[in-house]
Amino acid sequence: MIQEICKDEKFLAQKAEQATPDDIQTATDLLETLEAHKDGCVGMAANMIGVNKRIIEGTYMVMFNPQIVKQSGGYEAEEGCLSLTGTRKTRRWQSIKVQYQNEKFQTRLKTFTGWTAQIIQHEIDHCNGIII
């Protein structure tokens, strides 16, 4: 179900709780909401739809409990967000290795680069309560 975008900075600044298999519906809602906003959004975290769980959706791939375990190639970026007004400067990594759980809650490890890596870093920041 398409959810309303949360713009409450106090809520967005909270660290998200670990996701569990009971949160599968949230992942579905996240994907449907992302698809509804595809003209202006390339990734989402669960807190952007009002659910304080470590779930992100980026490039149409759901990740439960994602954590960056390795990064390289730092650079300066400027990003916008559906939950926040305007754009903000931030530091990102060109390459990241992420440990996460898939929709079956199997642990996976994958390296991402470029634009995809930037999207995932932005969404993981949401999980960590970091508002850029």
Question: Could you describe the 3D structure shown?
Answer:
The protein is of the alpha+beta class and 132 residues long. It has helices at residues 9-12, 24-36, 114-127, and strands at 43-45, 55-58, 61-81, 84-101, 107-113. The protein has three helices and five strands, in the order ααβββββα. Strands 1-2-3-4-5 form a five-stranded antiparallel sheet. Strand 3 and strand 4 form a beta hairpin. The longest helix has 14 residues, at 114-127. It is globular, with a radius of gyration of 13 Å. It starts with 8 loop residues before the first helix and ends in a 5-residue tail after the last helix.
Radius of gyration: 13 Å
Q: Please report the distance between the alpha carbons of the first and last residues.
A: 27 Å
Major sheet: arrangement of strands: 1-2-3-4-5
Overall pLDDT: 95
Number of helices: 3
Helicity range of the residues?
10-25%
What is the number of strand segments? Answer: 5
Sequence stretches where pLDDT stays below 50 over 5 or more residues: none
Approximate shape: globular
The string of secondary-structure elements, in order, is HHEEEEEH
* SS strand fraction: 35-45%
Structural class: alpha+beta
